[in-house]
Each structure stands twice: as C-alpha cells, then as structure tokens.
Amino acid sequence: MERYELPKNWVWRRIEEIADISAGTSAPQGEQYFSDGKYPFVRTQDVGKLGRTTCLKNTSDKVNDKAVSEKRLRKAKKGSIVLPKSGASILTNSRAILGVDAYIVSHLAILEPNESLLDSFFFYYWLCTIDMASFSQSDSGYPSLRLSDIAKIKIPVPPLSEQRRIVKRIEELTRRVEEARKFIREAESELAAFTPALLAKAFRGEL
Predict the structure, then answer these.
(1) What 3-state class would DSSP assign to 41?
(2) In whole angstroms, what is the distance from residue 39 CA to residue 13 CA?
(3) Which of 139, 142, 150, 176 is most deeply packed, by most CB within 10 A?
(4) How many Cβ atoms sit within 10 Å of the Cβ of residue 20?
(5) What does the pLDDT look like over 58-109, one tens digit per residue?
(6) Residue 6 gets which letter from DSSP?
(7) Closest C-alpha to 49, from 34, 39, 60
(8) Cα(140)–Cα(191) distance, rounded to whole angstroms?
C-alpha cells in the first residue's frame, strides 16, 4: 500500500518490478574449499560488523575454484545490495552494497537493481529507512524473511536523474554530519584534558 502521495513523475513500484531478488547458498564445509581462496564469500557477520556500508569488499573468508565448481555457489554482482533474511540478524537492519563481485551465504538476501530504472545507492538509502523486522515471520521463534515478502514491498521511484540528485545530497549531508561528530569528539577530548587543570586553578584561587 502506498504510504503517501508522490511528487510528479515519481511512481510506486514493487521491489520485484525493479530488482532481481534471490538468496545466497549454504556455506561450503571444509577447509579444502577455502584454502588459497581468492573469491570473497560474504557471511552474515561480514555485513553485521559494518552495520551499514556502501562498499563491502573485505570478507573474513574467501572461497577457491574447487568451491565454485563443486558447490554451485550464488554469485552476486558488484552494486547488489545484501541484507540478513534469517535469524536475529534481521533485527539489526544491516545493509551493504557490494563493492566487488562476491559469493553470498544463504542467510543473506541479494537485491540486484535494474540499472535502467534504479540507482543502487538510491535503493540502498531507501532500504535503510525500512525496518525489515516488521516483515519477518517468527512462528517457530526463529525470525525469517521470505523473498516473496521482500518482493512485494513498494518503493517510491523518481526518474534516475532525480535519484542521483537525492543520493548526492544525502552524501553531502552525511559528510557534514561526520565532520560535526569528529569536531565534537575532538572537543570532548580537549575538554577532558582541560578540566583537571581548570579545577586545580580554581582550588588554588587562581581563577
């Protein structure tokens, strides 16, 4: 259901209309599939330790040619978005844009946007506004997200040029926020160092 009226030239689209949706595959079992690995293998913890990132490249594990040829691993393209679809990790609302082509574990959903309709970064930032826990099933006490439910979620889609303008503005504001946070951290550090000296002066009657 549409949540609000959109500006002119924007349309509501179900995710399945503008992105391919799939899941990863079970992780290979055995050191023989990771020895001398050279292909990134994204696990839930790789996404979780970053929380949210627009460039996931580094993974704890890498698979080798043996794993790729024998295990039918699911490969996701650079620019795809991955997010947890099973277990308590759903509640973290972690998100990541892949910065490289990578193989994906089964606990993650893969959303590959149609680039003629949807900018990856716009899609990512919009997904960051959605609480996926509200779409999860937990009948057995184990939270899970069905791909079919993700597919039906509606997203407001402006023209690509507008999507990119919005992304640019978000990134500008994000940089300003990070700069402000850095300034606050530095000020707090300086204050912590300054306060003892200030108190010492006060109790010596030097203020």
Answers:
(1) strand
(2) 34
(3) 150
(4) 15
(5) 999 999 999 999 999 999 999 999 999 988 889 889 999 999 999 999 999 9
(6) P
(7) 60
(8) 51
Q: Is the CB of residue 133 less than 8 Å from the CB of residue 143?
A: yes
What CA–CA distance (Å, rounded) separates 163 from 104?
Answer: 27
Strand ranges in the chain using DSSP code E only, listed in sequence order: 11-14, 19-23, 39-42, 52-56, 61-63, 75-76, 81-84, 95-98, 102-104, 108-113, 154-157
Structure tokens at 84: 């947890």
Is the CB of residue 116 less than 8 Å from the CB of residue 157? no
Looking only at the bridges linking them, the beta strands covering 95-98 and 81-84 are antiparallel
pLDDT at 62: 96
Neighbouring-strand partners of residue 150: none
Listing from the earlier edge strand, what are the strands of the sheet with 75-76? 61-63, 39-42, 102-104, 75-76
Tokens of 82: 């991955």
Nearest Cα neighbor of 166 from 152, 151, 178, 155 is: 155
